[in-house]
Amino acid sequence: MIRKEKTLIVIVGPTASGKTDIAIELAEKLNTEIISADSRQFYKEIPIGTAAPNSEQLEKIHHHFIGHLLITDKYNVSRFEQDVLQLLEEKFKHNQLMILAGGSGLYIDAVCKGIDELPDPDEKLRSDLNRMYENEGIEALRNKLKELDPEYYEIVDLNNHKRLLRAVEVCMQTGSTFTALRKNKRKPRNFKIVKIGLEIDRGILNERINKRTEIMIDNGWLEEAMSVYPYKHLNALNTVGYKEMFAHFDGKMSIEEAKEKIKTNTRRFAKRQMTWFKKDKEIRWINPEQKEDILIYLSDIQ
Length: 302
Hints:
Layout: E1 7-12, H1 19-30, E2 34-36, H2 55-60, E3 63-64, H3 77-91, E4 97-102, H4 105-112, H5 123-136, H6 138-148, H7 150-153, H8 161-174, H9 178-182, E5 192-198, H10 202-218, H11 221-228, H12 242-249, H13 255-278, E6 283-286, H14 291-300
Parallel strand pairs: 1-4, 1-5, 2-3, 2-4, 5-6
Helix pairs in contact: 3-4, 5-6, 5-8, 6-8, 10-13, 12-13
C-alpha cells in the first residue's frame, strides 16, 4: 500500500476485542509503528492488569506510550494530545503511515479532534464538590452528572470520580452541558485520519473477557496488584480490576468474588466503550475475524 499523503490509521474497539493483535499485524504489513491510546497501559508497573503488549509483541513492532510513565507521575489527556502530535510530526517525515490503537475514547478524540478549551476550575466549587464526594460518595457525583448532562453520563467512566467531578464542575460553572462544550470545534490536523472499529458479537466478547481475566490472574495479576497496593489511592489505579483486587486485599471479598466482579465490571466497561465509539460516524466497523477486510478497506480509500 503506497500513500501519497500522511495518514493516521486509528484502530478502536472494546477491551478484549483484539486491537493489539490486529494493530501489530497491520503494522507489520505496512512497515510502520504503533501509538497506544489505552491510558492505563501508559504505566510501567501494571502491564498485566492493563493487558499491555507483552515483550514478544513489543519486539515485533515499535510501540509508543507503553509503560513510559510511573503510577506516581501526573499526566492527562491534554498532555497526551500534545505528545502524540509532536511524535507524529517527527514520524511523518520518514513514514506516510502511522497507527493509533486503543480503547480510551477520550484520548483518541484528543488526537483526532483536539481537546476543547474548558474553563479553569473554580476553587470554591471544586472544594464543595470534593466535600460532596468525601461525605456522600461517588454515587452523589453520578446522580448530579445524570441530572446536569445525561448524555455524557451514558459514556463516562462512572468509577472515575475525578472525571465525574470535572464534568459536574464544568456544567455548574458554565450553565451548559459538558457534552456541548466538548463538541465545540474540531481542531485541524495536517494528516488524513482513517478510523477502523473492531466489532464482535456481544456473547463472544463476554466469553473473551472472562477467559482473559483468568489468564491474567494465572500470569501474576494478583501479585502485580499487591505490589502497587500501597498506592491504591492514585488515579492511575482507579480502574477496573485493581479496585476489586484492593477490595480483596482489604478483606471485603474473597478472591473468587473479586474475579467475578472484575469480569462483570469489565463487561460493563466494554459496553460503555462501544457506546462512546458508536457515536463517531467516521468509524468503519469490521469484524476482527475478517482481517482481510481491513486491508481491502484501506486500499479502497487511498
